[in-house]
Amino acid sequence: MRNFILRRLFLGVFIIVFGALLVYTVIRSLPTSYVETIARQRASNPLSTKTYKEWLDQLNEVYGLNKGIIPGFIDWAKNAVRGDFGDSWHYGVPVTRKFNEVIGISIVVNIITFFLEVGLAIPLGILAARKQYTATDYAITIFALMGISLPTFFLATVLKYVFSIKLGWFPLYGLTGRFYTTMTPFMQFLDKGYHMVLPILTLMMLSVGGLMRYTRTNMLEVLNSDYIRTARAKGLPEKVVINKHAFRNTLIPLVTTMSGILPSMFTGSQITETMYQIPGIGYISYQAMIRGDIPFAMFYLSFLLILTQVSLLVADIMYAVVDPRIRVN
Asked: Residue 94 — φ and ψ, nearest 5°?
């Protein structure tokens, strides 16, 4: 197991470096550039003595954009290994400081979404498999397909229209209310939770369908196995057959699917946070990217690469946990 983990870590580092290089190349090739915007603003200042081209050359030299992509990436990687990701061009503070300020909100939203998704998708998937081709199965399948098919921006818009505009139950956007600063700490906590209901509901509805369908498919395959028929023939209660025998074997393929849930929620929450203007890492990184903020965009996308590799490594280790027959040689 130790040698396997070391090999996977080495492969993961290689993938992260190659992925970061690809991201850096794409960002450097974007038509939007923060330095071009700043150079244009400074050149338009009546007190400026430099032209737009002179300002642009100066800023490119300051930020290292006058170098090629490979030399520029190497300089970035050297600083990143030391934990120095530079200052955000858009926010004007160190990237890591801005990240620490907003990551907590995204973690809370995504952890709550994760537990709601697992707690809802797996039981409903098992129920749909047990009630195959019944009204219950069809209703769960329709609900799952709706979650899979609907785009994030469309679902968020519909939920905001129904629950915010028509019913007035929840706010349209933001993390806090108008009188947040005058509230007690407990009321502030409730106010933030109140504002997170629709974003969490959006994320949960979008992600629950795929896991639900996957659970149903794998449970049907397990329920048709010979050992399940044998367990039923022995007179075991249906609850024991499902929970003790069938569900444990269903977990094996589910581990693969669930390993990608965490990274996908952080990428998906970028659209959701932007739609609801929740100042989490997704919304903040989106604002940085559309303004050509290379330092912040590189840090955020590298964070997602690392998160993906860690999730895959944990999934491989979890195989041996849910199935004792699996061993790494």
From this structure: -55, 140
Asked if residue 50 belongs to a domain, the reply is no
Residue type, 203: L
Quick one: which of 107, 320, 108, 130 has its CA closest to 222?
Answer: 130
CA neighbor of 199 nearest in space, from 175, 178, 180? 175
State the SS3 of the chain.
CHHHHHHHHHHHHHHHHHHHHHHHHHHHCCCCCHHHHHHHHHHHCCCCCCCHHHHHHHHHHHCCCCCCHHHHHHHHHHHHHCCCCCECCCCCCEHHHHHHHHHHHHHHHHHHHHHHHHHHHHHHHHHHHHCCCCHHHHHHHHHHHHHHHCCHHHHHHHHHHHHHHHCCCCCCCCCCCCCHHHCCHHHHHHHHHHHHHHHHHHHHHHHHHHHHHHHHHHHHHHHCCHHHHHHHHCCCCHHHHHHHHHHHHHHHHHHHHHHCHHHHHHHHHHHHHHHHCCCCHHHHHHHHHCCCCHHHHHHHHHHHHHHHHHHHHHHHHHHHHHCCCCCCC
Cα distance between residue 258 and residue 125, in whole Å: 14
**Mind listing the pLDDT tens digit for each residue in 268-303?**
577 888 888 888 888 888 888 777 777 888 888 888
- Give me the percent of the chain exceeding a pLDDT of 90: 0
pTM of the predicted structure, to 2 decimals: 0.75
For 93-125, the pLDDT digits (tens) are 888 888 888 888 888 888 888 888 888 888 888
Do residues 189 and 175 make contact, with C-beta atoms less than 8 angstroms apart?
no
Whole-number Å distance between alpha carbons of 234 and 226:
12
CATH of the domain at 281: 1.10.3720.10
User: How many structural domains is the chain composed of?
Assistant: 1
Would residue 265 count as lying in a domain? yes
Q: Is residue 240 part of a domain?
A: yes
